[in-house]
């Protein structure tokens, strides 16, 4: 009678160790990424308002362009971890190389689009006459680093699939430090202004990509994996990533609609919305770290043919998601008085943001489960379902959000609609997980 509970406790502790070992470094790497933009903003901000405005527009365009291809990390993690679970490290690294080659091809295509259209893209974002030249300069130079950024995404997916989240953390921290030093040296030391900031970021990104390639190539040689591009493998990587691309675009559309609705509510509402959204994004990093662990762990179990292990790991990660969500929600409630003054001294903005922050706090346990199940299904390679589920969520959220200005409720109602969106995601992901249809064992799905 006592052996079964003891085995259960042992299994839970094993899952806990795996989750912590993967999630904590992943969280550090995720937090390091936005620090690139923060460092650039702090350095360029001292050049002048027009330069900072130009940087803001160009950074928004670059972030959007790169985030669209985040599937390079997600799909690669799932594919590589399956082969790791199956015990075929050579095929795992070969799969990773296909993702890296796809990243290089996509990066070259993005450069070919961005370089000639940079002025039009900046104009589309409504840049002023004084900010536009700086935005175009920064965008054109920084676009040269997009292939490196995409290689970083794909290589990160390879290492996560290999159950290694420490190396991405070290590379991200080193990249942030190099970026900050290069920016100061080129912007002020060399007198290149905003162009120096762009070149500093490009050099740092290329350095990060070079380190990742060195790590992957070394692993490929150790296990006898080919480094040559394989058209069939690259095509398979692209096909696996397409559903996740649809999912990502749908999520971006939701965030854009929310911002557009907030802008229609008034200046205080859009200002408060940006504050609340920034906190929501920060909280997402902590929850996404558990999801990243889920991608790697679930893929490995399924690759090893251990369906029950995948179910048990999923259950334990859901418990982690709920627990972390509750803690984050409490932190939001307790920190509200200290958090808001960091962003604004306007009492109208504070009064608008306060009730919205309460909604964000209450929603965190829901968000915790959503992020975990999202990671579980990604790790299982269940991309097509994730795409359809997110399209359905977009269809539910859009009318709810667009009705906010008409029905009233202001920013509080808008964030209630955002919580409805997360609840919808929870329902679709939970139903899929309960069905067991995501459990497909083997080295490939």
UniProtKB/TrEMBL annotation:
- CDD domains the UniProt entry points to: MATE_DinF_like
Task: Tell me the compartments it is located in.
Answer: Cell membrane
Predominant subcellular localization, coarse grouping: membrane
Q: Where are the transmembrane segments?
A: 55-80, 100-118, 138-162, 169-191, 197-217, 244-263, 275-299, 320-340, 352-373, 385-407, 413-431
Q: Hey, what's the signal peptide range on this chain?
A: none
The membrane topology term of the UniProt record is: Multi-pass membrane protein
One Pfam family from the record: MatE
Domain of life, per lineage: Bacteria
Task: State if Metal-binding is listed as a keyword.
Answer: no
Q: Which UniProt keywords apply?
A: Cell membrane, Membrane, Transmembrane, Transmembrane helix, Transport
The family note in this entry says:
Belongs to the multi antimicrobial extrusion (MATE) (TC 2.A.66.1) family.
Protein name per the record: MATE family efflux transporter
